[in-house]
Amino acid sequence: MTTTGSSGGNHRFFRGEKMFEFEMHQARSAELIRRAERERQAREAVRLAHAARDEAAARTAESESHTHRPRRHRSPRVA
């Protein structure tokens, strides 16, 4: 007796293969989500570092601009 189509044994094989593919897809998706989160955190850290640096520079410039030292007037350079 010959049968056409898939037999029960093959069906289980393909079903197991599909489950493996689905699990691989889920693992890959989770890894991509984790990577995106790490990259977002890295960008945020860089942004905060730049903001802190800019703020510190502004504070330094502000405090130096109000010093009471007299300016030194230099004579022109001799040729």
Describe this structure in words.
This protein has 79 residues and is mainly alpha-helical. The protein is built from one helix and no strands. The longest helix has 58 residues.
- The helix/strand order is H
- How far apart the termini lie comes to 111 Å
Give me the secondary-structure category: mainly alpha
Global shape = rod-shaped
Mean of pLDDT: 80
Question: Rounded to an integer, what's the Rg over CA atoms?
Answer: 34 Å
User: Please, how many helices?
Assistant: 1
Main beta sheet:
none
Task: Work out the strand percent.
Answer: under 5%
Strand tally is 0
Any low-confidence stretches, pLDDT <50, length ≥5?
Answer: none
Binned, the helix content reads over 70%
Supply the key terms.
mainly alpha
Which helices and strands occur, and which strands form pairs?
Elements: H1 8-65
Brief synopsis:
Helix content is 73%, strand content 0%.
